Amino acid sequence: VIQKLLGRPGPSRYLVCGFFFQSQDKYRAQATPLLLTRPRSVIVQEENPLAINALYDLSVDISKVRKLRGWVLRQSPVYVSETAALLRDMGAILCKPDQMEAQKKLWISVCTSQKDLVGIIEKFPASFFTSSSDHDNQKANIAYFQMLHLNKRIISKLMASAPQSFRRPIEQNEQMIQTLQKTYLDLGGKEDNMKIWLQKLLTQNPYVLLKLPDTLHDNVAFLRNAGFTGDELLRLLSKLKGFVTELNPESMRLTLSYSRETLGCTEAELRQIVLQCPALLYYSVPILADRFKGLLTAGVSMEQIMETSTVLELTTQIVQYRIQKLRSFGYDVCSDSLEVLNGTKKDFEMSYRKLRLRQERPLFNPVAPLRTKD
């Protein structure tokens, strides 16, 4: 792990070199910058044998370190053992060989290749280097998800991004999965499509497994009482990407009440707005108040917001920036559609580029021959 940190380009390499391998009088976390530049001294210093021996003991490829970050080997003192101890405490290195082998076999059963496993270890080391006491739970949970016919890619992603769900007893995951399945069917979902729906939900929000089934029950019951039909709730759950378990009835009640009063719409109209912009459910009243104020200050009407409610997903700062940029090319959001404001930064840049090209394009081609009647 130390070798990868030393040899990998990017911030992680500098983290070890700049934070843990610096002189004793500068070893203070509060005052130490993480990014240090390469020493500029033209005097060639001798390599520190203590540092080299310590790295050798950890099986680090010294030649690679010497090639990529050779100046590290010339520093004195260095803190190789301290860094190794920190990584050991995090579970990243120095695990018992038999434990490492058991984890490897376990992960290979859900990875498509060893290359994929290496990628997971690099991105999610804490998910791989885990306590041996969790091994039986991991094995049982893997078998359970395989029984659900989830593919390897989904299972490995769940293990990597939400390892806690695989370290706990299988009964807890079974209970949440069964609750999700029952909710899907009760809302009118088709049995044939349930596996795809479940896979998509777990991929979008792996942490849904860690939530309490009662939370899902309560939130669905609240939305039913708010007038949403089963089909609408199914669409809403899909659009919320599993984040329905992050909500609670009281916060939704406050948000919906404020939104209806501010927009001056009926309950039926509000439900359609929520279906168009499900994020409305989990924004707090202060956040919504700020976004409504920003749009109205820019000259946008309530009718426009109701027509394109997804604009409420954007922060006030982003909205102001995009409106100003559009106005520089003559696009007036007050009289035109707000749809151009929506989307990611990439989406907006594409829309903006089209508007700019439209404005810059000449009305006619001056070199083209004019068509006249004989």
TrEMBL record:
The keyword Transit peptide applies. GO terms for molecular function: nucleic acid binding. Keywords: Transit peptide. Pfam families: mTERF. GO terms for cellular component: mitochondrial matrix. One of its GO terms (biological process) is termination of mitochondrial transcription. InterPro entries: MTERF, MTERF_sf. Belongs to the mTERF family. PANTHER family: TRANSCRIPTION TERMINATION FACTOR 2, MITOCHONDRIAL, TRANSCRIPTION TERMINATION FACTOR, MITOCHONDRIAL. This is Mitochondrial transcription termination factor 2. The lineage of its organism: Eukaryota, Metazoa, Chordata, Craniata, Vertebrata.
